[in-house]
Amino acid sequence: MSHILYEVEDRVAVITLNRPEAANAQTMELLDDLDAAWTRAAADDGVRVIVLRGNGRHFSAGHDLKGGGPAPEKITLEHIYQVEARRYLEYTLRWRNVPKPSIAAVQGKCIAGGLMLCWPCDLIVAAENAQFSDPVVNMGIGGVEYHGHTWELGPRKAKEILFTGRAVTAEEAERIGMVNRVVPLDELDSAAMELAGQIAQMDSFALRQAKRAVNQTLDVQGFYAAIQAVFDIHETGHGNALSVGGYPVLMRLEEMKGRIKAQ
C-alpha cells in the first residue's frame, strides 16, 4: 500500500498521508514520497492549490521511531544530523516555499513531527477534535526539528506547550491564530476543498506573489535564520538523549503513540 496518495481535482492537488494503521507516523519512505508529491504539485501548471490531509482518525503521530533506522547502539549524532537536515529541515522549508497556496486539513492528533507537516502550509483547517502537541521535552529533546513554535504560538504559549507537553485544542489554536478555521469532523475534507476551490479561482501569478510577500516579510523578521539556528539547538537534544541512556528512552514516546492508535 502506498504511504502517499495523490490526485488532482479542479486545479487542486490533494496529497494524502496514507498510514492510518500507524496514525500516519512518518517513516523515511513516507517523507521521501511526500516530498516527491509536493514537487509534483509544484511543477504541474494545472495545479493552483495544494491540500494536505491524512487518512484515518489522526493527521499524524509524528516520526515513526520504530522505522528502518540503525540499531540504537549504532546511532551517532552525526548520523542523526545528516538524516534530519535533509528529511526534516530541507524538506519542510521546501514545502513552505512552494510557490502555490497550500492548505492542511487536520483531524485528531498532530504530534511533534506532525507539526512539521501542517505548519509549512499556508492555511490550516482543523476538525473540532484536532489536538496539536510537541511532548518531546520529556524525551530529552527541546522540540521538533522545524521550530515554528514561536511563530505559530507566540513565545509564552510556545514555552508552555514545550515545558508541559500538553496539547493545544482546535478551539485554542484558532483563537491564537494558528489555524484559520475549525469545522465539525465530518465536514473537514469538504471545508478544505471548498476553501481550496475558492482560492483556485484567483490569478495564479498574484497568488504566488501574495504568498511570497508574506513569507519574505517573515524571513526579514528572522524566520528563516531562526529555523536554521534552532535546528542546531534541536540536534543537541539528540546528543542529550544519547548521553542519558540512548534511544530506548524514546520508546516511551512510541508507547504513547501506541495508545493513540488504539483510540
From TrEMBL:
InterPro entries tied to this protein: ClpP/crotonase-like_dom_sf, Enoyl-CoA_hydra/iso
Any one Pfam family match given in the protein's UniProt record, by short name: ECH_1
CDD domains, sorted: crotonase-like
PANTHER family xrefs: ENOYL-COA HYDRATASE, IP11341P-RELATED
Protein family (similarity comment): Belongs to the enoyl-CoA hydratase/isomerase family.
Name of this protein: Enoyl-CoA hydratase
Classification of source organism: Bacteria, Bacillati, Actinomycetota, Actinomycetes, Streptosporangiales
